[in-house]
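Researcher: Good morning. I'm working through a list of sequences from a screen, and I'd like to move beyond sequence-only analysis. For each chain I'm collecting a predicted structure so we can compare shapes side by side. This is the next one on the list. No need for commentary yet; just the structure.
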Amino acid sequence: MSSSSSVRTDSPILTRLAALIGLTVVFAILFVTDRGGVHDDSSFRAVAAVGFLLLGGMLGAQLLEVFKLPHLTAYILVGVVAGPYVMHLVDHETVRKLSPVNTLALALIALAGGAELQLPMVLAQRRSLSYAMVIHAVIGGVLATGAFMLSAPFLPFARGQSWSVVLGIAALWGVLAVSRSPSATLAILSETRPDGPVTRFALAFVMSSDIVVAVLMSLVIALVRPLIEPLSVISLRDVQHLGHELLGSMTLGMTLGFVLSLYLWLVSGQLLLVLVAIGFGLTAGIRYLHFDPLLTFLVAGFVVSNLSGQGAKLLHAVEATGSIVFVVFFATAGAHLDLPLLSRLWPVALALAGGRIAITLLAHHLSAWLARDEPVIRRWGWAPLISQAGLTLGLSAVVEAAFPSFGTAFRSLVIATVAINEIIGPIVFKAVLERTGEVGKAKDHGATD
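Model: Good morning. Structure tokens for this chain:
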């Protein structure tokens, strides 16, 4: 009996030791392969990188469980260490070749996010969501705009500009500051399997608020253009384009949702291949039509979950596919982090990231007080709102394209700030879920973890 108890006690230690040895071996193999020039073909390097990041991320996650850190953090750190700026095991060209994995991951994230948005849950929180949307978008955005204007003298691309130009750039920053991370939120929820007030608020607010942010960005770009470019005027064409994008994305999303529901009801087999085809092929088609893939897949997932009885099947399939794709997605994000840039901009980036966290806390407590939310939401509902990732970077690319004069430098600052939020946010969210006792309380969708 004592022997059996000893084995159970030592088992976690042996597991961590095996993970450490395995991670060291994986790093060593890729290091020797890379330095020895065993295979210089770029396609081979991309395939090797996928295998390495997958194995390294999973082994790293086991190691960091000792410190109760999210698996997501381990994936990012493995990518950073293996990336172009540390060990150079995964170079810039390889990271670029892995972009299709990001496309698939974002499609799966949006589908799962929409499927998790249960209509009864959203309606039950409509008061909280309404106040939170308005307070975070308006007051949070204005305060973030002010924080950027205070930081402007320390930014080369804003220093010496007229007040109107700085105000325009700051307004763009204000919109980005109120964006969240569906990918990080769903990754933590998938890992911890929680349920409770904080979990439900996180799902409802993070998934729906990013639609609001995408709309805000299009409006703000149109409004600030005359401030940044004096010869420009506010164009109704931008507003018309926004309406076309929103209506087209929602219509296509509803159509895709009904088609997926029908497929799940009649066939339901080979769903992995269907999701991969949707993630790669349909995303390209959506972009060609100038629609928003995130909104399209979000609506599709919502339709499947709420207008058919097939939501559990869809979530099961996404979880089975995403368990592999998400590891590579976040590890690639870690490899993509520009460490030299972060080292140059870290004082301002850290100040802006810290200011954003403070503004998020203030906006959340104000909205929760006005909505008369339950105490656990008032105290901890801000935790899932810290993370930023792919959506914020995507919107920064839109700003870069719209304003080439400062867009590249602006996006560099965004990348540096997102890097901080991308690491801090998931750790905080997981800690809060454990503190509130919501971890492990989710109903099983039928997937095997």
